[in-house]
Amino acid sequence: MHNILQYLPQLLGAAFKYTLPIAIISFVIGMIIALITALIRISNKRGFVLVIKAIFRFYVWIFRTTPLLVQLFIVYFGLPYLKIAGIAPDGIKLAPFTAGILTFSLNTGAYCSEIIRAAIIAIPKGQWEAAATIGMTRRQALQRIILPQALRTSVPPLANSFISLVKDTSLAASITIIELFEVSQQIAAANFQPLLMYSLVAIIYAVFCTVLTFIQGYLEKVTSRYTIA
User: Fold this and answer.
1) According to the model, what pLDDT value does residue 1 have?
2) Residues in CB range of 107: below 8 A, 6 or more apart
3) Burial 152-176 (b: 16+ CB within 10 A, else e)
4) Beta strands of 98-210 (E only): which ranges?
5) CA-angle at 206, arms to 202 and 209, nearest 5°
6) How much is the pTM?
7) Residue % of the chain over a pLDDT of 70
8) Cα dist. 178→10, 14, 99, 192 in Å?
9) What is d(CA 63, CA 130) in angstroms, rounded to the nearest whole number?
10) Do residues 149 and 68 make contact, with C-beta atoms less than 8 angstroms apart?
11) What is the number of other CB atoms lying within 10 angstroms of the CB of residue 147?
12) In the predicted model, is pLDDT for residue 111 greater than 80?
């Protein structure tokens, strides 16, 4: 018990200084990327938009088909070797925190864009047609009718994505970010009690995710308040 009380402040300090901020910032940025990606991919416009759609489709494909750990290594360890004349002659070197935020945001954006896109597509086409009959443009219908419904049905999977992201931040230790798991590794190396330290970290993650699960349940109740059963 003494050991737990001794190391708990260090672990919680790392969690609140790095783990949670990384998760929150990455999720917010990822959601912006996801919304833009989803809207572009459902666009019915032709011409140059098709090229943009292809680029975003490739982005989603590459981030959904490669491991997050590999993505972190490419961004942090690989980009410094990508030398671009006139732009980055010495390679693209990012601070660990920046590299982590960038990678987690892009990864989250790719997965969440599919959640939002699927939710939008699931809205009956009759609602688009009804909006058009009363003079709404496609953009107005999207903003006033389609997106509010799609985002409401997206709450459970998006909340699950955020909970998963909180746990995935443990991978940031691989690029030297001193977050919760990295601190536990350092303490375990010093006190030779890996079972205690890793079990304590697991409990902290479990508490965080349990709290987030309760918040998710509350959000689901609020957003489904006016849903007709």
Assistant:
1) 59
2) 30, 63, 68, 71
3) bbbbbebbebbbebbebbbbbbbbe
4) none
5) 135
6) 0.92
7) 97
8) 11, 7, 13, 19
9) 36
10) no
11) 19
12) yes
- Sequence length of the chain is 229
User: 190 Cβ partners below 8 Å, 6+ apart?
Assistant: none
Structure tokens at 177: 């970010």
- Quick: pLDDT tens for 14-55: 999 999 999 999 999 999 999 999 999 998 888 888 999 999
CA distance 71 to 67: 6
pLDDT at 229: 46
User: Hey, how many other C-beta atoms are within 10 angstroms of the C-beta on 190?
Assistant: 9
Which is it for the CA torsion 107, 110, 114, 120, positive or negative? Answer: positive
Q: Which CB contacts under 8 angstroms, 24+ apart, belong to 53-57?
A: 56/113
Which domains are present in the chain?
2-223 (1.10.3720.10)
Report the alpha-carbon distance of residue 55 to residue 41 in Å, rounded: 10
pLDDT tens digits, 140-159? 888 888 988 888 889 999 99
